[in-house]
Amino acid sequence: MFSKPTRNHITIVLEQIGAAGIVVLTFAYSALYEALTSGQNIFSKQFWLRLVYSVIGSQNETAAVIFGTAGVLALLFPLWSLVRWYKTVFYIDGEHLVCERNTLMKKISRLPLSSIATVNLERNVFERVVGTAKIKLDINSAATANQTDFTFVLSLEKAKALEAALLSAKKEEQTQSEVKETVFAFTNAQAVRHVILSQPVVQYVGVGALAVIAVFFDARVLGGDTLTRLAPVLGLSVLGWLAKIVLQIMSVSNFRIERDEKSFFISSGLLRKKNYSFEKDKINALTVRRPVLARLSGLAFAEVAVIGLGNDKKETPQISLLVKENELQKILDVCAADFNCTGEKIPEHKTGLVAAMAKYLLVFGAVGIAAAFVWLPLCPVIILLGAVFAVLSHKAKSIRANEGIFSYSQGFLSQKTCFFKYSDIQTISFSTNVLVRRYDTGRITLSILSHSTMSVHGTVWTKRSDFVKISQKVTNSYNFKN
Q1: CA 340 to CA 417: how far, in whole Å?
Q2: Per-residue pLDDT, 143
Q3: pLDDT tens per residue, range 457-482
Q4: Which of 191, 269, 294, 338 could form a cystine bridge with 299, CB 3.0-4.6 A?
Q5: End-to-end distance of the chain based on CA atoms, in angstroms?
Q6: Nearest-10 crossing angle of helices 201-217, 226-252
């Protein structure tokens, strides 16, 4: 079906120009239709001046020229989008996906099917109404790790056919009729639990505390009515937060993980349908997260670093929702069994407490000074609280390493543990400062091939000897690969 040049569905033009463009086109159509039906000469200067004057509400000729120029450019963009759609085609040529764009400058991209990291099928509300779907392709490239490399909009039938064709073509041993096996299917109740227990409670508590201090300060010092004036803003904030939760629940509803011999398939979404697929050996890292509320119930979820699962829309690269630790381990035994690290736990070196103290005392000190204007005893209490947080943060950090995997843990409220294969680590560095240099300690930082939020990891403060051992394993794995 895709051996011959194929165009995107024409509705891609509407998605590219967006809602604002549609409004402009509607306005232009209405104005022209009215002019034609009223017998006005649309080629006269007076017609266009009257039109612009009526829009800007003024007869300033300079403003009319500026507005008219902007209007012309706004009208040219949809026309250019239409030309670009017509002049852009793609097709599968043997072992390559070829994309051609023959507009002002001709551009031909040849993508080896073997380099495709993920094939993602999505459907937003608009696409479900018009019967189309979006196919997103991402490749193993550090240069484009933060964005989707290729996007196609097709009818739903063609989109599914393209997805199947790409997966079939890039995996020689796989056929389109291969049966998928369900790894785990999450219920909608689990989706609701996941979203509610994953909320950043600490941030909301902090904002709430600052609001309380502000109101208290106003009442004691200024004698004002801050709470009354803030009530509408607070109400809108709460409504916005609830709307965000509802959208998140709809995004992860019907969450399902499937697999075949080489690949995993993740689908979710109530209104906006999302389907991800990626090969098992494309996973560059694993992260297990335990949000503060979820930890109280012994729940955790997992994410993977795979190009395409964290792209220009910053979608969460999850392979599970919140489940009990033993259930999560069963999922990981299937999806990421080779990321298990059984090495000895190495706590963060005591010099890491210096960095933690500097971080927390800077923030809590500023809050404490502000609180002192309300009630002086609050200042030392808040600063002491910052010191306690620093100690707990330091105690929660550790690293592990065995022959194939390196991992680190951090977070005393919301906790995360990240796992990396030495062969997937691109760079690893050791940084120190004048305060702790005499202890021969520093902080390990590493990077992997992934999107921006997962590519760079600052781990823990440790002895240089530990860093040398880990970096040597990274070097050995790189030499083995090459």
Answers
A1: 11
A2: 45
A3: 999 999 999 999 999 999 888 766 65
A4: 294
A5: 38
A6: 170
| Contact between residue 100 and residue 89 where contact means Cβ atoms under 8 Å apart | yes
pLDDT band at 332 (very low <50, low <70, confident <90, very high): very high
Residue 316 has pLDDT above 60, yes or no: no
Residue closest to 405 by CA, chosen among 425, 417, 416, 420: 420
Q: Which band of pLDDT confidence, cut at 50, 70 and 90, is reported for residue 52? A: low
Measured CA to CA, the distance from residue 305 to residue 142 in angstroms comes to 13
Contact 461, 394 (CB under 8 A): no
pLDDT tens, residue by residue, 182-198? 999 999 999 999 999 99
pLDDT at 178 (0 to 100): 55
HSE-up (13 A, CA, CB side) for residue 136: 21
Q: Which two tokens stand for residue 145?
A: 């790790």
Question: Residue 357 in contact with residue 467, Cβ under 8 Å?
Answer: no
pLDDT at residue 142 tops 50: no
